[in-house]
Structures are given as structure tokens and as C-alpha cells.
Amino acid sequence: MKIIRAMHFEKFDLNLLAVLEAVVEERHVTRAAARLHLSQPAVSHALARLRDAVGDPLVMRGAGGMTPTPYALRLLEPVKEALSKLREGLALQQHFDPGRLGDTFLLGVTDYVELLLLPRLAEEVRKQAPNVRILTHAITQEGLAADLATGRIDVAIGFMQRAPRGMHAQRLFEERYVCIARGDWRGRLTLKRYLAARHLQVSPSGVLTGPADEALAKLGEKRRVVFATPHFLSGAGIVARTDLLMTTGSRIAEYFARESPLAILKPPFTMPAIEMQMVWHDRTEADPAQKWLRSLLAAAAEET
């Protein structure tokens, strides 16, 4: 009775599978060696290692060449399937075709990005790669580096003063600040009126301060924030129905003004422009599918 040895797959040399495929199909060690661009002794040595690993002779020498054993013939189909998938993956790296993708991409975004960029991104993805899935996650500056390093997200898009250390970053566009108020606002927004008003702060982390407060602190002034929400969408809806002011980026303000009765006002003090950045980890830097995704995000940003 033949004893099949227990095999630890994690220690198995996958190069031996290509040898098995070639030897079984060619039925000849010399022809298999030529097909693999190896020497005949190298193929014979690999075949010996494979026999030892599986506990089966695999091929037997005969008058017409090498005859596969039943076990070798049973192995051939799954081996060919595995090698075919591996070759497809390697070919994808060299000859990228988004239409063949079935990947899931994980994006770290705020609803600001979702509103401005994702409709354009989704439209282009559906055209070029209909089998791709896009999943979004909320992000914070504090957890960004860990999320990118662990693969919880593939790429992050947001307003960032600086990219996490060791990450790649690309500037998508520059944004200026404006204020939005209910549509019945009348007159110019002066510093006195700004300070007298009550304010809404969009804050994913829940803090009641932001860039406007930093700018006011340089003037020795403080505003009164009475409402904080993590979402730009709900913030604009609240402003449209109350007397609150919201200081936000100009693109999102223009977006909401098309949908709701809102007034867009110039801030009565100087605020520095902010940059929308796309950030990714080194692990995805060279991947052609990830490069393709980032190119679509950059193109969507150019259209905003």
C-alpha cells in the first residue's frame, strides 16, 4: 500500500507546478526543459523534488517517452487552472486592461469628496471597468496612516495640511473659503456681523473649532459655534433653515447653492487657501489597477 506523505503547502515550491505541467503535457523531459528554458538536469532535479513532495512517481519512463500516472493526470487540471490565473495576474501587471478588473477599491473620504468627486468617478468606472466595486469609509487625520498601512483603505482624499509620513500624496485642487447663510441674508458680511452671528462647524472629530477660529485668533477675536456636525450635507441643510453661518469651501458652497436657497458670502477676514490631496501608501504605488483608480480621481478633480 502506497503511503502519501503529508505536505506543508506553505513550504512547497510553486515553481515545481510549471515543471509538472510541462512534463505531463510534453511526455518528454528534454522537450519540457526546452519549453521551460531550463536544462534537462534542472528539470530532472525539479521532477525528483516534486515526486518526493507528493509521494507519487508522477511519470514513468516507457518506449514512447514519459507516461503520466493517474495521480499526475488528476493533478494536471487544477495545476493548469492555478498557473493560468497566475499568468493572467502577471500579464495584468504588464498589459493593464481595466475592463478585465474585478477588484474592490476602498476609498477614505468625507462627504465633501463624495459629493464633488464620486459621481464623476462612478460614471467613468462604470464605463471602463463595470465589474469593479468602490467602497467608501469615513476618515480622520489621526487614523489615516494606520488605515492606509493596514489596507483598510487604498487611497484617501481630503483637505490635509500635511500627508502622513512615508505616504505618497498628490495635490488635486486648491480651495478658498466662503461663508454660506440662509437665502434671505441681506447686505455685506462684516466682521462685526460675523462675530455677532452663531455658527455651525463641520467637524468629523466633533471639535467646535476649525480654520476660521485659527484665523480669528490672530485678530484677537472669537466666534460662537453652537452646532457641530460631521457632514457637510447636513450642515448646509441646517444653514438653509436657520440663522446659522457656515464657513466652508467654495466648491461645496456653490454645489449647495444650486440645490437650496443659500447666500454665498465673502469672509470678512483673510483665510489661507486649502488643498485637496489624494494620499496613498507605498504598498499600492506600483500597482497598475491602483494607478488607474488614482488617474480617474485626478481627472474627476480637474472637472470640479
Summarize the structure in short:
This protein is of the alpha/beta class.
pLDDT < 50 runs, ≥5 residues: 1-8
How many strand units?
12
Largest sheet: 5 strands, mixed
Strand residue content:
15-25%
Q: Briefly note the structural class of the backbone.
A: alpha/beta
Q: Helical content, roughly?
A: 40-55%
Describe the global form.
Answer: rod-shaped
Q: Give the overall average pLDDT.
A: 87
The termini sit apart by 73 Å
Q: Write down the secondary-structure element order.
A: HHHEEHEHHEHEEEHEHEHEHEEH
Give the spatial strand order of the biggest sheet: 4-3-5-12-6
Using only C-alpha atoms, the radius of gyration works out to 30 Å
The helix count comes to: 12
Characteristic terms for this protein:
22% strand; alpha/beta; 304 residues
What does this structure look like?
Strands 4-3-5-12-6 form a five-stranded mixed beta sheet. A five-stranded mixed beta sheet has the order 9-8-10-7-11. Mean pLDDT is 87; it is low at 1-8. Helix 1 crosses helix 3 (40-54). Helix content is 44%, strand content 22%. It is built from twelve helices and twelve strands. With 304 residues, the protein is of the alpha/beta class.
Write the SSE topology.
Blueprint: H1 15-26, H2 29-36, H3 40-54, E1 59-62, E2 65-68, H4 70-94, E3 104-109, H5 111-116, H6 118-128, E4 133-138, H7 144-150, E5 155-159, E6 168-175, E7 177-182, H8 191-196, E8 198-202, H9 211-218, E9 224-229, H10 232-241, E10 245-249, H11 250-259, E11 262-265, E12 274-280, H12 288-302
Helix pairs in contact: 1-2, 1-3, 1-4, 2-3, 6-12
